[in-house]
Write a structure and sequence with these properties.
603 residues, mainly alpha, two-stranded antiparallel sheet, 24 helices, 56% helix, RNA_pol_I_trans_ini_fac_RRN3, RNA polymerase I general transcription initiation factor activity
């Protein structure tokens, strides 16, 4: 249908239709008690089909009377802030940003509302159908996120105290950890972008992200993840065999790569979320420390200080986390000085009597595991750490052997036993590198450690160390005639260790094979995508020859402790008041950003 040559079906209206007076007149009426136009204005602003021209028109009017928008007009401002500006034409975005800057400059009472509006857009909408959401993620999210950060930086320029109000809002809006991988990935990516242009918030942002990641980590034990992934592979193979029986003519068809078992997607839902977030965090660490592909030492040192503070506050007190601590492991690989600083930090924690025993024990576990597993540590660094640990053990024995507490007791001597286990564990992994090159000098060095005195002392460390560590250490030290541990091991075996009666009743008892409740923080990394960054830095377990120890390990297995360390539920924090609840849940997929410094989020 055409009138005067104009196609009404395909041509937009020449002028925007609106009802009521302009904003200034509406506010004047509202002040006099007439709310009809005020309510009509709110209704028109909330119209889901509002056009770009309408948005621009309203925003221009709001800017002209921004000084009149007092606390009395709170509801109207909240509706205006919710105008759909993201992804609109450049004119709408520009007008909206101008409105924001005018509003926070003239009416700082609305600063929190403006910040909440921006932060609420750091994650994909939860109200769209899945198919629509995927399209938005692929095409609109990067641009929308850029616009959000543009708005946040603009607010920060006009209100210098923005950072003080922003952090609580970032915490409040953090998605629940059971949300999809994509939602968590988007939000964490955007938090880390904020940390780039508001450096004063970086430590708090890292603390927030890592605290949420630890909740995921402790609810997905390594053994559970491996079982789920292995079962998925077995099911996939079983399905393929059944298909081959039915359709054996299609020999060229390979279905493994199109299935979860043949991709980098984790079948375990919590592990999938954690893997996604680890990829994002490790990418951030790399980008922050490198400029044009070269390591920036000062920026790296600053990030290291922030991560160590978060480590002390959150990671170190968390029992049995499996993967989050690898963020620091990865950072330390950039420069030997960082790794040595981390080891020195752990050493200070271990030997300091002013720290709680449980943290000192945890520090010993981290120290031993790091020395054993970080393949970027040269043997000279390993020896330097042994030269700190072993004399400290001898001094401790000197202080206890003649006293009334010279007997095996974990409560009294917990840090000592964990330090012993750290030394044993380090030597199990590193004895080859100490000996290679010059066997005579290497043996002389190991003999100078006087390990026999530690093993034979009245505190009896072999009684409480993990059996797998004890047996492997005994085999290696016997091979090189350093210590003969088997007499003590046999004597310990004749004395029953603490036992726990069966929970089902009866006389059945089980021996406590892990009285120290120890774990090795840098045991094998099992997350698929993020492991690509960790594997080149990781010292895998290599079976020593002629030790006479049967570790029952398959060719692909990396951990001689497999099956020896009881699976313990991870606990965030060591005080009864800080135990965190455990999580369960479904997930979805995401992929990492490339650069936090210049590039937007890409899915």
């Amino acid at each position: 249908m055409e009138i005067e040559g104009r196609d009404f079906m395909n041509t937009p209206p020449l002028k925007t239709v609106r009802f009521g007076g302009n904003v200034v007149a509406t506010l004047a009426k509202f002040k006099q008690g007439d709310t009809s136009d005020y309510e009509l204005l709110k209704h028109q602003l909330a119209d889901p089909d509002i056009k770009d021209a309408q948005i621009i028109n309203w925003l221009q009017e709001f800017r002209n009377c921004v000084t009149q928008l007092s606390k009395d007009h709170e509801q109207l401002i909240y509706v205006a802030l919710r105008l759909p500006w993201l992804g609109r034409s450049p004119a709408v975005v520009e007008e909206y940003l101008s409105f924001l800057s005018n509003l926070v400059s003239a009416q700082t009472v609305y600063l929190r509302a403006c910040l909440k509006m921006v932060v609420s857009n750091f994650k994909p909408s939860e109200f769209l159908p899945v198919c629509v959401d995927i399209l938005i993620t692929q095409y609109d999210l990067p641009r929308s996120f850029d616009q959000c950060h543009q708005a946040l930086q603009l607010i920060g320029r006009y209100v210098p105290s923005t950072s003080c109000f922003l952090m609580p809002i970032l915490i409040e809006n953090f998605p629940f950890v059971q949300k999809s991988s994509r939602t968590l990935e988007c939000y964490v990516h955007n938090l880390l972008r904020v940390a780039v242009y508001i450096p004063s918030l970086r430590r708090d942002v890292l603390e927030l992200i890592i605290s949420r990641m630890l909740k995921l980590d402790v609810s997905a034990p390594r053994g559970e993840i491996e079982d789920v992934e292995e079962n998925a592979v077995q099911q996939e193979l079983k399905g393929e065999q059944e298909e081959e029986g039915l359709f054996d003519m299609d020999e060229d068809v390979c279905s493994v790569n199109s299935s979860p078992a043949g991709t980098n997607v984790m079948v375990h839902p919590v592990a999938e979320r954690l893997d996604t977030l680890m990829v994002v965090l490790l990418a951030f660490i790399k980008d922050m420390c490198h400029v044009n592909g070269c390591l920036d030492v000062e920026r790296t040192k600053d990030l290291y200080k922030d991560l160590v503070c978060v480590f002390d506050k959150l990671i170190l007190p968390t029992h049995a986390s499996c993967h989050v601590q690898y963020a620091l492991f990865y950072l330390c690989s950039f420069r030997l000085a960082l790794a040595e600083a981390f080891l020195e930090h752990l050493w200070r924690l271990l030997q300091s009597p002013s720290h709680p025993a449980v943290l000192r024990q945890s520090a010993a576990g981290y120290m031993g595991s790091f020395l054993a597993r970080a393949n970027f540590l040269p043997v000279v660094t390993v020896r330097a750490c042994l030269d700190l640990l072993v004399p400290w053990l001898h001094l401790y024995i000197d202080s206890q052997d003649s006293g009334s507490r010279a007997y095996c007791d974990i409560t009294l001597h917990g840090p000592f036993y964990n330090a012993c286990q750290a030394v044993f564990y380090t030597l199990i992994f590193r004895h080859r590198s100490i000996l290679e090159g010059n066997m005579k000098k290497g043996l002389a060095y190991l003999q100078s450690l006087n390990l026999e005195r530690i093993v034979m002392c009245q505190l009896n460390p072999l009684k409480v160390c993990l059996p797998a560590v004890t047996n492997m250490f005994a085999a290696i030290t016997r091979k090189y005639q350093l210590v003969f541990c088997y007499t003590i091991i046999e004597r310990n075996n004749r004395h029953v260790l603490p036992v726990v009666r069966s929970s089902v009743g009866g006389d059945c008892v089980s021996t406590n094979t892990n009285p120290l409740d120890s774990f090795f923080p840098f045991d094998p990394y099992v997350l698929k995508r993020s492991s690509k960054l960790i594997e080149p830095l990781y010292q895998v377990w290599e079976e020593p020859a002629d030790t006479g120890v049967d570790t029952c390990s398959d060719a692909d297995e990396d951990d001689f402790l497999r099956g020896e360390t009881p699976e313990t539920k991870g606990v965030m924090g060591m005080t009864p008041g800080s135990y965190e609840s455990h999580l369960h849940s479904p997930s979805s997929v995401g992929s990492p950003p490339i650069s936090f410094l210049q590039r937007p989020y890409h899915h």
